Automatic annotation (TrEMBL):
Gene3D superfamilies according to UniProt: Rieske [2Fe-2S] iron-sulphur domain
PROSITE patterns referenced in this protein's UniProt entry, alphabetically: RIESKE (PS51296)
The Rieske domain, residue ranges: 20-134
Protein's recorded name: Rieske domain-containing protein
């Protein structure tokens, strides 16, 4: 897994990062705010929010919703993308699913934010000489959003299209 600092790092070097996938120029990504791209067999969303670059699997871990259409909001001090289909909240930095929980025995009941754990695969974004690259999170642990990166899912989606 990547640290928050690694996730949003902007580095400069004279050569392309190893095993990184070119997304576009930083100016283009910043102007577009959100870029989706099929790279290395993964559908990736790269976005620029408050001057930081973030990358994650494009489809929501819950039901495959298009995260590129989701709003970005802050929950409990953490920036999240909100899936437009079912309003699932996913942290930009770690890919954690967040939910609100209420303790019914507290008076008055006060909702608090909790993590469901890592549900969305996030990837490392780097900038080299004005170009933006994504290096995949190569954790061997299965993450829920991985299902929507399979050929099986793409086949199902292509059959469902009119």
């Amino acid at each position: 897994m990547f640290s928050e600092e690694e996730q949003a790092s902007c580095t400069s070097s004279s050569s392309d990062p190893p095993s990184a996938h070119f997304i576009g120029t930083k100016d283009d990504v910043v102007q577009a705010k959100r870029v989706t791209k099929l790279v290395g067999g993964r559908d990736v969303l790269v976005l620029c929010h408050l001057g930081q670059l973030h990358a994650m699997d494009m489809r929501c871990y819950h039901s495959g919703g298009p995260l590129q259409e989701g709003d970005i909001e802050e929950f409990d001090g953490r920036m999240c993308i909100v899936c437009p289909w079912h309003q699932y909240k996913i942290t930009l930095a770690e890919g954690e699913g967040l939910y609100q929980k209420v303790n019914p025995s507290s008076t008055p009941p006060k909702p608090t934010w909790h993590s469901k754990g890592i549900k969305q695969r996030v990837h490392l974004v780097t900038e080299v000489n004005g170009n933006v690259y994504v290096t995949f999170n190569d954790s061997l642990d299965t993450i829920d959003s991985d299902f929507y990166q399979t050929e099986r899912y793409r086949t199902i989606m292509n059959k469902a299209k009119p």
